[in-house]
């Protein structure tokens, strides 16, 4: 017979421990912040994704919603041990749940994350959801050295987050799109201004739908007419090398594509 008082669970006394032998004494359990989560998409994030898909808000407006939003990370079962039945059939004796990564259109690994149970189930009905905040999701990607997050893959709200934005979310710091960032603009413009044949420059989104089908930033150089192909190649190669070694660009720009546009009003 137990000598504990009525209503008291004696297994949590100071002389008791869990199955690993670790004492229960001094432990406490944190409340679950997602206890009342019904699996639907966080409203502010969902609305920003819808508006982005319609072209009514920019990339930065979506990134601003990610850190404080709840996401669902999918866990999928992986076979860890098999057996052979009497009739020769192979069957699973044990399976483990693990976080998965997916291949992106630009050839990199990405963590998939979902805004709702519905979008996750449409992607893979066997996946089990684990809720996390956007900050923890970004920290996980940084920890695993993964430079891509794919929100709601396969859905109308699909949205790719690249490495510089992931690091900003993980650090809980504001993020600016590189084509709108004055420090990035200056880092590109300073070396380009040393070339007399370059009369202007434009920085624009290279992947405006955030689907990883092109580099993040397009740099358009406006050049004098009359340059031959070799001269244009030399200018582009030198600028690309200098940009790649700039610390501001390295930290704030994921990838670039360079385009040339002739200046109709300038000739050599």
Q: Can you give keywords for this protein?
A:
single chain; 2 domains; three-stranded antiparallel beta sheet; disordered N terminus; 268 residues; 10 strands; Alpha-Beta Plaits; 29% helix; alpha+beta
How would you describe the overall organization of this protein?
The chain has helices at 43-54, 59-66, 117-123, 134-143, 163-170, 182-192, 229-244, 247-252, and strands spanning 70-84, 90-99, 102-103, 109-113, 128-133, 148-151, 159-162, 198-205, 217-225, 256-267. By secondary structure, it is α+β, with helices and mostly antiparallel strands. The protein folds into two domains: 43-170, no CATH class; 178-267, 2-Layer Sandwich (Alpha-Beta Plaits). The strands form three sheets. A four-stranded mixed sheet has the order 3-4-6-7. A three-stranded antiparallel sheet has the order 2-1-5. Strand 6 (148-151) and strand 7 form a beta hairpin. The longest helix has 16 residues, at 229-244. Mean pLDDT is 88; it is low at 1-14.
Short description:
The protein is α+β, with helices and mostly antiparallel strands. Helices cover 29% and strands 28% of the residues.
Into how many domains do the coordinates divide? Answer: 2
Low-confidence stretches: 1-14
Order of SSEs: HHEEEEHEHEEHHEEHHE
Helix content: 25-40%
Q: Which structural class do the helices and strands define?
A: alpha+beta
Q: Note the main sheet.
A: 4 strands, mixed
- Strand order within the widest beta sheet: 3-4-6-7
Give the helix tally. Answer: 8
How far the N terminus sits from the C terminus, by CA atoms, comes to: 101 Å
Structural shape: elongated
Q: What is Rg?
A: 26 Å
Please state the average pLDDT score.
Answer: 88
């Amino acid at each position: 017979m137990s000598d504990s008082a009525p209503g008291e669970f004696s297994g949590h006394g100071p002389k008791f421990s869990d199955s690993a032998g670790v004492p229960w004494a001094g432990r406490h359990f944190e409340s679950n912040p997602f206890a009342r989560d019904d699996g639907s998409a966080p409203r502010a994030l969902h609305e920003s994704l819808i508006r982005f898909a319609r072209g009514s808000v920019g990339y930065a407006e979506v990134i601003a919603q990610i850190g404080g939003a709840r996401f669902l990370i999918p866990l999928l079962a992986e076979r860890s041990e098999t057996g052979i039945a009497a009739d020769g059939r192979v069957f699973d004796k044990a399976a483990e749940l693990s976080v998965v990564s997916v291949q992106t259109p630009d050839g990199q690994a990405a963590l998939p994350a979902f805004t709702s149970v519905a979008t996750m189930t449409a992607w893979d009905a066997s996946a089990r959801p684990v809720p996390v905040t956007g900050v923890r999701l970004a920290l996980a990607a940084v920890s695993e050295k993964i430079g891509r997050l794919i929100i709601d893959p396969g859905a109308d709200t699909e949205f790719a987050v690249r490495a510089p934005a992931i690091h900003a979310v993980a650090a809980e710091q504001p993020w600016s799109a590189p084509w709108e960032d004055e420090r990035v603009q200056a880092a590109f413009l300073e070396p380009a201004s040393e070339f007399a044949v370059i009369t202007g420059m434009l920085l624009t989104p290279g992947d405006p739908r955030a689907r990883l089908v092109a580099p993040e930033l397009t740099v358009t150089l406006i050049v004098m007419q009359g340059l031959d192909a070799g001269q244009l190649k030399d200018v582009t190669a030198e600028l690309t090398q200098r940009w790649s070694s700039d610390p501001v660009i390295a930290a704030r720009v994921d990838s670039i594509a360079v385009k040339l546009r002739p200046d109709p009003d300038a000739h050599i």
